[in-house]
Write a structure and sequence with these properties.
Blueprint (H helix, E strand, L loop, with lengths): L24 H21 L3 E8 L2 E10 L5 E4 L1 H4 L4 E5 L5 E10 L4 E6 L21 E6 L7 E15 L5 E8 L11 E3 L5 E8 L7 E5 H14 L5 E2 L2 E7 L2 H7 L5 E8 L4 H4 L7 E5 L2 E2 L3 H7 L9 E7 L2 E7 L2 E2 L4
Antiparallel strand pairs: 1-2, 1-4, 2-3, 3-6, 4-5, 5-6, 7-8, 7-10, 8-9, 9-12, 10-11, 11-12, 13-20, 14-15, 15-16, 16-17, 16-18, 18-19
């Protein structure tokens, strides 16, 4: 006869004094405080994070997220979301829809600015000072990943001052790394501090990696917004050269009286450009700009900011193993 009497197995671990107890009431209070902080931030900033539907050549070509930063409808997003768009549809968390147009974009920082065309009064988020961030701070990401609107993830600031290569090959500086989960569609959304301030614009994640996501710092975003509002672009300087990083051998360092092991070698000089007019040649190695040391091409691009346009600027060069200085006047760089 089949024995169907219930049998119970004694779980000795249940009586093991080494088994960790449930979290004490004090820990529960801390978790409640953390939850309350996150929900308050989401209630404050969430209404200003929108879904963007982008149309190019008359067809819907993609979607992403954006952050409203002024009541009249200035929305910051990623360049790779909005670049080249003819029309942008804005869907608010409360269900309202608006049409917007692209004000300008900056592929060098992967940021773009769009503006709602109708007269509106919208909830707006506030940009914080990303320079005050510290590793380990709470980071809350709000966006519309994979079409799921108003999605919230939370983590911490994992690292600061990272560099991230933009789609056009330029290096984005001072990028924030976080473990708050991001997915496609989060691009252009808000990375928010526990104070309810937008400290970053979510821009990228490493596919296949767990807990590694990136946001463009709010201080970078503030600078870029200013340029896009004034000019529809961010103005940067150019001297008219093609160049690559170069090693400076110990022998040349001693002969030229320099202490750095790398610079930027000029490959070619654009005819009639600023470098050409100043006598710069292929083979020259740039080691400093206005006294600031240069050891790589990204550093050179970084130093050629808007304030250098039209202003005489000193370039320290190594030529045939000897150091010399040439003065030239950078011009505005057009294109990516």
């Amino acid at each position: 006869m089949l024995d169907v009497t219930p049998r119970f197995v004694l779980d000795e671990d249940a009586f093991d004094s080494s088994t960790p107890p449930l979290a004490p009431a004090g820990d529960g209070a801390l978790l409640d405080a953390y939850s309350l902080a996150v929900t308050e931030v989401v209630e404050r900033v969430g209404p200003a994070v929108v879904r963007l539907d982008v149309r190019r050549h008359g067809y819907r070509s993609g979607s992403g997220s954006g952050v409203i930063l002024s009541p009249d409808g200035l929305i910051l997003t990623n360049s790779h979301v909005a670049q080249g768009s003819a029309r942008v549809g804005v869907q608010m968390p409360d269900g309202r829809h608006f049409d917007a147009r692209l004000i300008g974009d900056d592929p060098d920082t992967d940021l773009a600015l769009v503006h709602v065309e109708q007269p509106v009064s919208l909830p707006a988020a506030r940009l914080g000072d990303s320079g005050l961030l510290k590793r380990g701070q709470i980071a809350i990401a709000i966006g519309n990943p994979l079409g799921f609107e108003a999605t919230v993830t939370a983590g911490v600031i994992s690292a600061l001052g990272r560099s991230l290569r933009a789609k056009n090959g330029r290096l984005i500086d001072d990028v924030i790394q976080t473990d708050a989960a991001l997915n496609p569609g989060n691009s252009g959304g808000a990375l928010v501090s526990s104070r309810g301030e937008v400290v970053g614009i979510n821009t990228a994640m490493i596919m296949g990696a767990q807990g590694i996501s990136f946001a463009v710092a709010s201080n970078t975003a503030s600078f870029v917004m200013g340029g896009l509002i004034r000019h529809g672009r961010v103005r940067r300087a150019s001297i008219g050269i093609a160049a690559h990083p170069a090693v400076i051998t110990r022998r040349i360092q001693v002969a030229a009286g320099v202490v750095q092991a790398a610079g930027v070698m000029v490959d070619s000089v654009e005819s009639g450009g600023a470098a050409d007019m100043a006598g710069m040649r292929a083979g020259d190695i740039i080691v400093a700009v206005d006294g600031t040391r240069v050891s790589g091409a990204d550093e050179l691009v970084r130093l050629l900011a808007e304030d250098k346009i039209g202003r005489p600027t000193a370039f320290d060069l190594l030529r045939n193993g000897r150091r010399q200085v040439v003065e030239l006047t950078p011009r505005e760089r057009w294109g990516a």
